[in-house]
Amino acid sequence: MSTAPATLTRAAALRLLLDRLGEGNTTHHCLATEACMRALAERLGQDVELWGLAGLVHDCDLDVCADDPERHALVGAQVLREAGAPPAVVQAVLGHNDKAERVSLLDRALWVVDPTTGMITAAALIRPSRSTSDLSVKSIKKRMKDKRFAAAVSREQIRACEAQIGITLDEHLAVCLGAMDAARDQLGLGGGSLS
Ligand SMILES: [Fe+2]
Questions:
Q1: What is the pLDDT of residue 4?
Q2: Residue 130's domain is classified under what CATH number?
Q3: Distance (Å) from CA 38 to ligand 1 centroid
Q4: Ligand 1 center to residue 1 CA distance, Å?
Q5: I need a labelling partner for 60 at 20 to 30 A (CA). Which of 3, 37, 75, 115 fits?
């Protein structure tokens, strides 16, 4: 007889992530997304733990789907269901890669935050400090205007913050930058040599 898995805890989610992705850039990206989602949940009066969990696990299948956008998020959703992730997290993960309609505020926030962390990371790593510690919202916005800089990062998705989650671009970037800077050492953004 099979029993339902226990609800996925943050510790179990991190273990799952590290088992699948190791400690490289993708895990840093997932941790950055977690930090931003938690901060936005706080700002928007939402469930901080739930939103953080969605951010943490959203790319958990990139070990097998990095070159397979058609399966990315579908595989992750299955992995997460089996691990006991809350349905709202599974739904947001599917939605972030257009595998389900984005209905809830959580679904929409994850879609906006995903490229935002990429832009902030790229903007930090090009600085002499290689850190978020002296990065400003103004500087991130300047980078966003340069189409050649981090060209794969969707500006459209980041700028959709106002329509999707109801906060201005300035505030969205400030909240996400603050969250990532507070966790910069875990995200590989604390400065120093290349890792
Ligand atoms: Fe992502």
A1: 59
A2: 1.10.3210
A3: 15
A4: 36
A5: 3
Q: Which domain holds residue 43?
A: 10-182
Question: Distance from the CA of 114 to the center of ligand 1, in angstroms?
Answer: 5
As for how many domains the chain has, the answer is 1
Per the domain annotation, does 188 fall within a domain?
no
In a domain, 56, yes or no: yes
Give the integer Cα–Cα distance in Å for 181 and 132: 5
Q: How remote is the CA of residue 133 from the centroid of ligand 1, in Å?
A: 22
63-98 pLDDT, tens digit per residue, is: 999 999 999 999 999 999 999 999 999 999 999 999
Residue 175, domain member (yes or no) = yes
- Residue 153: exposure state from Cβ atoms within 10 A (0-12, 13-18, ≥19): buried
Q: Which residues of 170-186 are buried (b: 16+ CB within 10 A; e: fewer)?
A: eebbbbbbebbbebbee
Given a cut of 90, whether residue 3 has pLDDT beyond it is no
Give the span between the Cα atoms of 22 and 13, in whole angstroms: 13
- Tell me the CA–centroid distance for residue 30 and ligand 1, in Å: 6
Distance (Å) from CA 29 to ligand 1 centroid: 7
pLDDT exceeds 90 at position 132:
yes
Assess if residue 81 is contained within a domain. yes
